[in-house]
Amino acid sequence: MQLKIKISPEDAGRKIYDILRDRYQMSNLLCKRIRLYGELYLNGFPARMIAEPSEGDEILIIYDDSEGIIHTKKNTDIHIYYEDDWIIVCEKPGNLVTHPSWQHMDDSLLQRLCDQRLHPIMRLDRETSGLIVIAKNGYAHNTVSRNKMEKEYVGIVYGTFEPEEGTIDRPIGRDENSIMIRIVREDGHPSVTHYKTIQKLPEKNLSVVSYKLETGRCHQIRVHSLYLGHPLVGDGLYGPRSNDFPNPEMEHIENEDRIARQALHACKLGFYHPITSEWMEFTSEMPEDMKNLLI
Fold it and tell me: 285 FRET partner, CA 20 to 30 A, in 27, 33, 49, 256?
């Protein structure tokens, strides 16, 4: 890998090591491996990590030590769309957490991918399936996170949105009586969801809806859909058979028995590569368990 850095006024006079750690979120281990196994140049001349560059100086890092590169497991069951020394783009199955948590310590997306440390750039709810980008080091995580990203989801909801295309601009916050449940509340965080109805199935009381997010609040699509009276099929927290928002009179509530999770899938993902700055875009088809609802 090669990385070029132009020194900003804020970093002038600081040690290269500190710049890499603080500004680019590189780990101590990665900096050490660059020092031991890589090449470090300042304005074209070999340099040390303790060098203190001036504004406008250029740093070049060349690092090709295979022992320090993170590789995914060869026997992983996760569908990987793209992988290099910096990032992984893969598809998270439904009913799988992104990273280990106190309730799910033994199985997660990160554990299925790799035994080394990974840095998720985005997070999908456990039951949500679809595309996710994961960084292999702090620098890649920081770079992708601070630049433009585009995310699109497809969901299956009860009923039909009116109008069929629009924007939901309602603040979301935590329910005071729950550590999990989010609701629309005036003192919540600004939350904006754009939606578009793709397909209507009135005989099943279902619609297929595309969602694009301006913000990334916890449970945002699920909460906004419920707010307009069209919860996602299979949603155990916000659906018609949930404890907090029960609606036993929902037409065709038997759809809840046809899927073992909320019908939501991250179907499109776009972002800038952390090193090449190339715009990368990926798409993923609706999974079979969601397609089966439409049959």
Answer: 256
